[in-house]
Amino acid sequence: MAWLRADPVDWGIRIAVVLLIVAGCYAVYINGVAEGWWRAWGENPTTIPTRSAMSGRAPTPTPTPSTSGEAAMSGGYQVGPDGVLVRPAEHAASTYPLPELPQAATQNSERGAEAAAEHLLALEIYAWNTGDTEPFANMTEPGDSFRDSYISAINELYANGWAYGNESRVVHVLRLEPVPAGEGNVQPNTVGVKLQIVSSDGVTCRGQKITVKEEEYTSTLSLFMTWKDGRWIETQGRVISEHEQ
Protein backbone atom coordinates (compact mmCIF):
# COMPACT_ATOMS: atom_id res chain seq x y z
CA MET A 1 0.00 0.00 0.00
CA ALA A 2 2.98 2.31 0.68
CA TRP A 3 3.92 2.07 -3.03
CA LEU A 4 0.45 3.20 -3.99
CA ARG A 5 0.61 6.21 -1.68
CA ALA A 6 4.04 7.38 -2.94
CA ASP A 7 4.25 10.83 -4.55
CA PRO A 8 5.63 11.36 -8.10
CA VAL A 9 9.16 12.07 -6.82
CA ASP A 10 9.29 8.76 -4.97
CA TRP A 11 8.02 6.97 -8.07
CA GLY A 12 10.83 8.50 -10.15
CA ILE A 13 13.47 7.43 -7.61
CA ARG A 14 12.14 3.87 -7.45
CA ILE A 15 12.03 3.52 -11.25
CA ALA A 16 15.63 4.77 -11.48
CA VAL A 17 16.74 2.20 -8.89
CA VAL A 18 15.06 -0.63 -10.80
CA LEU A 19 16.72 0.46 -14.05
CA LEU A 20 20.12 0.56 -12.36
CA ILE A 21 19.65 -2.97 -11.04
CA VAL A 22 18.63 -4.25 -14.48
CA ALA A 23 21.61 -2.54 -16.11
CA GLY A 24 23.98 -4.01 -13.54
CA CYS A 25 22.66 -7.55 -14.09
CA TYR A 26 23.06 -7.19 -17.85
CA ALA A 27 26.64 -5.97 -17.44
CA VAL A 28 27.47 -8.96 -15.21
CA TYR A 29 25.96 -11.32 -17.79
CA ILE A 30 28.00 -9.86 -20.64
CA ASN A 31 31.17 -10.03 -18.59
CA GLY A 32 30.43 -13.63 -17.62
CA VAL A 33 30.17 -14.69 -21.25
CA ALA A 34 33.44 -12.94 -22.08
CA GLU A 35 35.20 -14.66 -19.18
CA GLY A 36 34.03 -18.09 -20.22
CA TRP A 37 31.33 -18.71 -17.64
CA TRP A 38 29.54 -20.96 -20.10
CA ARG A 39 32.28 -23.51 -19.55
CA ALA A 40 30.95 -24.10 -16.06
CA TRP A 41 27.77 -25.39 -17.72
CA GLY A 42 29.57 -27.86 -19.91
CA GLU A 43 30.04 -25.58 -22.88
CA ASN A 44 33.38 -25.30 -24.60
CA PRO A 45 33.21 -22.69 -27.33
CA THR A 46 36.13 -22.76 -29.75
CA THR A 47 35.28 -19.76 -31.89
CA ILE A 48 34.25 -16.20 -31.28
CA PRO A 49 30.89 -15.36 -32.89
CA THR A 50 31.24 -13.12 -35.91
CA ARG A 51 29.01 -10.27 -36.79
CA SER A 52 27.26 -12.31 -39.44
CA ALA A 53 26.64 -15.14 -36.95
CA MET A 54 25.23 -12.70 -34.40
CA SER A 55 22.87 -11.34 -37.04
CA GLY A 56 21.70 -14.82 -37.98
CA ARG A 57 23.65 -15.07 -41.28
CA ALA A 58 26.26 -17.70 -41.95
CA PRO A 59 29.80 -16.28 -42.02
CA THR A 60 31.37 -15.96 -45.43
CA PRO A 61 34.36 -18.34 -45.71
CA THR A 62 37.72 -16.77 -46.35
CA PRO A 63 39.11 -18.08 -49.64
CA THR A 64 42.47 -19.85 -49.46
CA PRO A 65 45.13 -18.16 -51.58
CA SER A 66 46.13 -20.34 -54.50
CA THR A 67 48.13 -20.17 -57.67
CA SER A 68 46.57 -21.18 -60.95
CA GLY A 69 49.46 -23.58 -61.61
CA GLU A 70 49.46 -25.12 -58.15
CA ALA A 71 49.25 -28.94 -58.23
CA ALA A 72 46.46 -30.70 -56.36
CA MET A 73 47.61 -32.91 -53.50
CA SER A 74 46.15 -35.96 -51.75
CA GLY A 75 47.72 -37.65 -48.74
CA GLY A 76 51.11 -36.09 -49.45
CA TYR A 77 51.06 -37.22 -53.09
CA GLN A 78 50.56 -34.97 -56.09
CA VAL A 79 47.48 -35.79 -58.16
CA GLY A 80 48.29 -36.20 -61.85
CA PRO A 81 46.18 -34.87 -64.74
CA ASP A 82 44.65 -38.35 -65.15
CA GLY A 83 43.44 -38.31 -61.55
CA VAL A 84 46.06 -40.86 -60.44
CA LEU A 85 48.56 -40.04 -57.71
CA VAL A 86 51.98 -39.24 -59.15
CA ARG A 87 54.61 -41.90 -58.47
CA PRO A 88 57.53 -40.58 -56.36
CA ALA A 89 60.54 -39.83 -58.54
CA GLU A 90 62.92 -41.68 -56.19
CA HIS A 91 60.90 -44.85 -56.81
CA ALA A 92 60.37 -44.38 -60.54
CA ALA A 93 60.21 -47.41 -62.80
CA SER A 94 63.55 -46.36 -64.28
CA THR A 95 65.23 -47.08 -60.93
CA TYR A 96 64.62 -50.82 -61.48
CA PRO A 97 67.14 -52.31 -63.95
CA LEU A 98 66.12 -55.23 -66.11
CA PRO A 99 67.50 -58.47 -64.57
CA GLU A 100 70.18 -60.09 -66.70
CA LEU A 101 69.91 -63.76 -67.65
CA PRO A 102 72.60 -65.66 -65.73
CA GLN A 103 75.00 -67.81 -67.71
CA ALA A 104 73.83 -70.92 -65.87
CA ALA A 105 70.30 -70.40 -67.21
CA THR A 106 71.54 -70.94 -70.78
CA GLN A 107 72.51 -74.57 -70.08
CA ASN A 108 70.28 -77.56 -70.84
CA SER A 109 70.59 -79.16 -67.44
CA GLU A 110 68.78 -79.37 -64.13
CA ARG A 111 70.98 -76.60 -62.80
CA GLY A 112 70.13 -74.55 -65.89
CA ALA A 113 66.40 -75.06 -65.26
CA GLU A 114 66.81 -73.94 -61.64
CA ALA A 115 68.71 -70.81 -62.66
CA ALA A 116 66.08 -70.05 -65.31
CA ALA A 117 63.27 -70.42 -62.77
CA GLU A 118 64.99 -67.98 -60.40
CA HIS A 119 65.47 -65.57 -63.29
CA LEU A 120 61.78 -65.85 -64.19
CA LEU A 121 60.91 -64.88 -60.62
CA ALA A 122 63.17 -61.83 -60.94
CA LEU A 123 61.39 -60.85 -64.18
CA GLU A 124 58.01 -61.14 -62.46
CA ILE A 125 59.14 -58.79 -59.65
CA TYR A 126 60.58 -56.43 -62.25
CA ALA A 127 57.19 -56.39 -63.99
CA TRP A 128 55.35 -55.53 -60.77
CA ASN A 129 57.71 -52.64 -60.03
CA THR A 130 57.81 -51.20 -63.54
CA GLY A 131 54.68 -52.28 -65.39
CA ASP A 132 56.89 -53.79 -68.13
CA THR A 133 55.57 -57.33 -68.59
CA GLU A 134 57.29 -58.04 -71.92
CA PRO A 135 60.45 -59.72 -70.54
CA PHE A 136 58.32 -61.97 -68.32
CA ALA A 137 56.00 -62.74 -71.23
CA ASN A 138 58.95 -63.65 -73.47
CA MET A 139 60.11 -66.31 -71.00
CA THR A 140 56.69 -67.93 -70.61
CA GLU A 141 54.48 -69.82 -73.03
CA PRO A 142 51.39 -68.03 -74.38
CA GLY A 143 48.16 -69.55 -73.16
CA ASP A 144 49.58 -70.70 -69.85
CA SER A 145 47.18 -69.64 -67.10
CA PHE A 146 50.00 -68.83 -64.63
CA ARG A 147 51.58 -66.48 -67.17
CA ASP A 148 48.33 -64.87 -68.29
CA SER A 149 47.03 -64.24 -64.77
CA TYR A 150 50.15 -62.30 -63.75
CA ILE A 151 50.30 -60.27 -66.96
CA SER A 152 46.61 -59.41 -66.68
CA ALA A 153 46.92 -58.35 -63.01
CA ILE A 154 49.95 -56.15 -63.67
CA ASN A 155 48.42 -54.51 -66.75
CA GLU A 156 45.21 -53.83 -64.83
CA LEU A 157 47.16 -52.21 -61.98
CA TYR A 158 49.20 -49.93 -64.27
CA ALA A 159 46.13 -48.87 -66.20
CA ASN A 160 45.15 -46.79 -63.17
CA GLY A 161 48.11 -46.89 -60.80
CA TRP A 162 51.61 -48.18 -60.10
CA ALA A 163 53.69 -50.13 -57.57
CA TYR A 164 57.19 -50.15 -56.13
CA GLY A 165 59.09 -52.00 -53.42
CA ASN A 166 57.78 -55.41 -54.47
CA GLU A 167 60.40 -58.04 -53.54
CA SER A 168 60.90 -61.81 -53.56
CA ARG A 169 63.91 -63.96 -52.77
CA VAL A 170 64.53 -67.69 -52.89
CA VAL A 171 65.32 -69.24 -49.51
CA HIS A 172 65.21 -72.95 -50.39
CA VAL A 173 65.13 -75.19 -53.45
CA LEU A 174 62.56 -77.74 -52.34
CA ARG A 175 62.55 -79.96 -55.42
CA LEU A 176 64.42 -80.22 -58.71
CA GLU A 177 63.86 -83.11 -61.09
CA PRO A 178 62.83 -84.04 -64.65
CA VAL A 179 59.08 -84.47 -65.19
CA PRO A 180 57.85 -87.28 -67.50
CA ALA A 181 56.17 -85.95 -70.61
CA GLY A 182 52.57 -86.73 -71.47
CA GLU A 183 50.89 -86.61 -68.07
CA GLY A 184 49.10 -83.38 -67.12
CA ASN A 185 50.01 -81.73 -70.44
CA VAL A 186 53.70 -81.91 -69.55
CA GLN A 187 55.87 -81.23 -72.57
CA PRO A 188 59.09 -83.08 -73.41
CA ASN A 189 62.37 -81.85 -71.90
CA THR A 190 60.65 -80.41 -68.81
CA VAL A 191 62.22 -80.02 -65.39
CA GLY A 192 60.12 -79.33 -62.30
CA VAL A 193 61.48 -76.62 -59.99
CA LYS A 194 59.87 -76.02 -56.60
CA LEU A 195 61.14 -73.00 -54.66
CA GLN A 196 60.38 -71.63 -51.24
CA ILE A 197 60.31 -67.84 -51.50
CA VAL A 198 59.90 -64.93 -49.09
CA SER A 199 58.10 -61.89 -50.49
CA SER A 200 56.73 -58.46 -49.61
CA ASP A 201 54.31 -56.43 -51.71
CA GLY A 202 55.71 -52.95 -51.01
CA VAL A 203 53.64 -49.91 -52.01
CA THR A 204 50.70 -50.10 -54.40
CA CYS A 205 48.67 -47.21 -55.82
CA ARG A 206 45.26 -47.66 -57.39
CA GLY A 207 43.81 -44.34 -58.49
CA GLN A 208 44.17 -42.22 -55.37
CA LYS A 209 44.39 -45.10 -52.87
CA ILE A 210 47.77 -46.12 -51.46
CA THR A 211 48.29 -49.56 -49.91
CA VAL A 212 51.49 -50.38 -48.03
CA LYS A 213 52.32 -54.02 -47.27
CA GLU A 214 55.92 -54.28 -46.15
CA GLU A 215 55.51 -57.39 -43.99
CA GLU A 216 57.14 -60.52 -45.40
CA TYR A 217 55.31 -63.77 -46.14
CA THR A 218 56.41 -67.21 -47.34
CA SER A 219 55.15 -69.00 -50.45
CA THR A 220 55.93 -72.06 -52.52
CA LEU A 221 56.55 -71.41 -56.21
CA SER A 222 56.31 -74.46 -58.50
CA LEU A 223 57.38 -74.13 -62.13
CA PHE A 224 57.68 -76.48 -65.07
CA MET A 225 60.64 -75.20 -67.06
CA THR A 226 60.80 -76.64 -70.59
CA TRP A 227 63.81 -76.56 -72.89
CA LYS A 228 62.53 -75.35 -76.28
CA ASP A 229 64.35 -73.77 -79.20
CA GLY A 230 67.62 -73.62 -77.30
CA ARG A 231 66.31 -71.91 -74.15
CA TRP A 232 64.25 -72.44 -71.01
CA ILE A 233 60.67 -71.20 -70.88
CA GLU A 234 57.96 -71.64 -68.27
CA THR A 235 55.11 -73.87 -69.49
CA GLN A 236 53.19 -74.37 -66.25
CA GLY A 237 53.30 -72.66 -62.88
CA ARG A 238 51.65 -72.29 -59.53
CA VAL A 239 52.26 -70.30 -56.36
CA ILE A 240 50.78 -71.20 -52.97
CA SER A 241 51.10 -68.93 -49.94
CA GLU A 242 51.90 -70.31 -46.50
CA HIS A 243 48.27 -69.71 -45.48
CA GLU A 244 47.04 -72.03 -48.24
CA GLN A 245 49.46 -74.85 -47.57
Overview of this protein structure:
The protein is α+β, with helices and mostly antiparallel strands. The chain folds into 2 domains: 1-37; 90-241, Nuclear Transport Factor 2, Chain: A. The protein is built from 5 helices and 9 strands. Strands 4-5-8-9 form a 4-stranded antiparallel beta sheet. Strands 3-6-7 form a 3-stranded antiparallel beta sheet. A hairpin with a 2-residue loop joins strand 1 and strand 2. The chain is elongated. Residues 1-6 and 26-70 have low confidence and may be disordered.
Labels describing this entry:
Nuclear Transport Factor 2, Chain: A, 245 residues, 29% helix, three-stranded antiparallel beta sheet, four-stranded antiparallel beta sheet
Order of helices and strands: HHEEHHHEEEEEEE
- Residue runs with pLDDT of under 50 for 5 or more positions: 1-6, 26-70
Number of helices: 5
Assigned CATH class of the largest domain: Alpha Beta
Question: Layout of SSEs?
Answer:
Blueprint lengths: L7 H27 L16 H4 L18 E2 L2 E2 L31 H21 L3 H5 L6 H14 L2 E4 L2 E13 L10 E11 L1 E5 L2 E5 L3 E12 L2 E11 L4
Antiparallel strand pairs: 1-2, 3-6, 4-5, 5-8, 6-7, 8-9
Task: Characterize this entry briefly.
It is built from 5 helices and 9 strands. It has 245 residues and is α+β, with helices and mostly antiparallel strands. A hairpin with a 2-residue loop joins strand 6 (202-206) and strand 7 (209-213).
